[in-house]
Amino acid sequence: MSRLLTLALAVALAVLGTACGNETVTETPTGATPARTTTATEQPTSKPNPSPTTAVAGDTVNLTGFTDEAKLAVTVVKVVDPATGKDIRPGTGQRYVAVQFRLHNTGSVDYSDAPDNSAKVIDVQGQQFSSWITETTAGPGFGGTTTIPVGDTALGYIAFKVPSTSKITKIQFAMESGFANDVGQWLVA
Question: Could you read off the pLDDT of 57-78 as tens digits, one per residue?
Fold first, then answer.
């Protein structure tokens, strides 16, 4: 019985790995010559080398959601590290990082989602940190669910709570609360 259960678990994990391994990470800003597009299953062979075609703060990356009608031009406008909490401190051994995003709806349907769920920061060790629901003095956030009509833009900060010793090197954003396969990535200097 345990062999059958082990075999079933192995098959399920293999199917799940195949189904979830189609994520594409784009580091090419809009209007630039394509630099690098990698899949989530690829392992980097060396440290990323920032170049004019690698997205950094200020660059816009075009992203698609679950359908071709759902599209955003996403810009990392500013990174505030460390950020100060409005009402609450992050705790001993931790700090806040706030990232300002500009979301421009370039699709043919309204964008309605919680941008805070769509963003992550990554440190030099590869640890990923999801957003932390808190307000910072850096500026206003998105305030939960945001609806952006076709052609309109929204601007807001997303806060992250990270260890004090973490050096943040990348920012990621994916539509559909982070579940879309098209992932934008920006390098942090």
Answer: 999 999 999 999 999 999 999 9
- Tokens 């192995």 belong to 10
Give me the residue spans of the domains in the chain.
Answer: 23-187
pLDDT in tens, 93-133: 999 999 999 999 999 999 999 999 999 999 999 999 999 98
Name residue 83's amino acid: A
Residue 169's CB: how many other CB atoms inside 10 A? 17
3-state secondary structure of 3: helix
Q: How far apart are CA 7 and CA 84, in angstroms?
A: 50
Strands (E), 84-124: 94-105, 111-113, 119-123
Tell me how crowded residue 154 is: count the other CB atoms within 10 A of its CB.
17
CATH architecture assigned to 23-187: Sandwich (2.60)
pTM for this entry: 0.75
Strand residues in the chain grouped as ranges (E): 24-26, 37-39, 60-64, 71-83, 94-105, 111-113, 119-123, 128-130, 146-148, 153-163, 168-174, 182-187
β-pair partners for 160: 97, 131
